[in-house]
Amino acid sequence: MQYRRLGSSGLQLSALSFGAWVTFGGQIPRGTARDLIAAAWDHGVNFFDNAETYGNGAAERLMGDVIADLRLPRDGYCVSSKVYFGAVDEPRPTQRGLSRKHVTDACHDALKRLRVDYLDLYYCHRPDPDTPVEETVWAMDALIRQGKVLYWGTSEWSATQIREAHKVARHHHLHAPTMEQPQYNLLHRERVELEYAPLYAEYGMGITIWSPLASGLLTGKYNAGFPEQARLGRQDNGWLRKLVIGEPEQHRVERARRFTALAAEFDVAPAPLAIAWCLRNPHVSSVILGASRVEQLLQNLQAIDLLERLDETCWHKVRVVAA
Ligand SMILES: NC(=O)c1ccc[n+]([C@@H]2O[C@H](COP(=O)([O-])OP(=O)(O)OC[C@H]3O[C@@H](n4cnc5c(N)ncnc54)[C@H](OP(=O)(O)O)[C@@H]3O)[C@@H](O)[C@H]2O)c1
């Protein structure tokens, strides 16, 4: 495993981390969840990502349960939560968003579900148009001063919104956001590569990126249709399929087909190749992996070896072929 600093902070995260979205508290049984966390840990993963909204808290409960069961040393791993969407169906106004109340309640609930005394990373899962950014920055700063959170950050905030949070923090001498959690993969590059470009040096911002495989599309598993047991083929995930594949449907699938053909030319599996491509961006502190089976995770962890194996010409081809 490789370890990278979270932006300019002193926290060293594994370059490949592991997240719970869709899988934990829904798709997979407890035994698989336990095997996945154990395999990740055995391969040097030290960051496990979660959110209040994943399975309405069930993902955090399951992750907390298996981490406790595996007796991972608390000083050896980092765990995150994210606040915004709430953890109940049809949340009331105080059960969602980034008000001081919900940010505080959600933190306390995540601590209980994950069975920890503090969250290593705590993200604002989306910007909240109904809460002044000052209120959220003060709330995050208070949680840090209380020892309940170590680093706070944002997820899918615009560069302008991130700047605003830094301005408030600087003005009042509060803890500023350390990291952002954006989507980043071969099919979705603009925000990380263009919009955020000035922020890395300006604020020492780190990024922990999500959906490196575009929900599996870059593995080639959807090249010839949508298998029922795979994420984008499952009946209850129709909304997600629309979101990931977009319109017109053929275009993104065609890009994935071209990419997987190139991977075959290099004689490597497409999944670790797509993940390694994300890792080549020096601003990426950690690539958050998702997996529904241990075999997938083990294959994806091979991304680290590919960094050395392929030369610049190959990486250029990868970039061009998926464009
Ligand atoms: N901040 C945010 O807004 C946000 C949003 C989304 C995710 N996240 C975080 O980022 C993490 C990763 O995102 P993601 O799950 O979308 O990542 P991803 O790598 O794009 O997709 C993971 C899914 O692809 C399939 N897959 C993975 N490896 C495979 C392989 N080698 N071969 C075939 N299929 C494979 C599996 O689904 P199936 O087996 O079911 O097909 C797996 O669950 C999440 O767990 C979450 O922690 C954050």
Which key features would you list for this structure?
about 325 residues, alpha/beta, 8-stranded parallel β-barrel, two-stranded antiparallel sheet, binds NADP nicotinamide-adenine-dinucleotide phosphate
Structural class: alpha/beta
The order of strands across the largest sheet is: 3-4-5-6-7-8-9-10
Please indicate the percent range of residues in DSSP E strands (runs of 2 or more).
5-15%
User: How many separate helices?
Assistant: 14
CATH topology: TIM Barrel
Which hetero ligands occur in this complex?
Answer: NADP nicotinamide-adenine-dinucleotide phosphate
Oligomer description = single chain
The CATH architecture term is: Alpha-Beta Barrel
Largest sheet: 8 strands, parallel, barrel
**CATH class annotation:** Alpha Beta
> What would the average pLDDT be, to the nearest integer?
96
Round the Cα radius of gyration to an integer and report it.
19 Å
Organism: Lysobacter concretionis Ko07 = DSM 16239
Family: Belongs to the shaker potassium channel beta subunit family.
Domain NADP-dependent oxidoreductase: 16-312
GO molecular function: oxidoreductase activity
Task: Walk me through the structure.
This protein has helices spanning 23-27, 30-42, 58-70, 100-114, 133-145, 159-172, 190-195, 197-203, 238-245, 249-266, 270-279, 294-301, 303-309, 312-321; strands spanning 3-5, 12-14, 16-19, 47-49, 78-83, 119-124, 149-154, 179-180, 206-209, 284-289. With 323 residues, the protein is of the alpha/beta class. It has a single domain (3-220, 270-311), classed as NADP-dependent oxidoreductase domain (TIM Barrel, Alpha-Beta Barrel), CATH 3.20.20.100. An eight-stranded parallel β-barrel has the order 3-4-5-6-7-8-9-10, surrounded by four helices. Helix 3 (58-70) links the parallel strand 4 (47-49) and strand 5. It is globular, with a radius of gyration of 19 Å. It starts with a strand and ends with a helix. Bound molecules: NADP nicotinamide-adenine-dinucleotide phosphate. NADP nicotinamide-adenine-dinucleotide phosphate binds next to strand 10 and helix 12. It comes from Lysobacter concretionis Ko07 = DSM 16239. Keywords: NADP, Oxidoreductase. GO terms for molecular function: oxidoreductase activity.
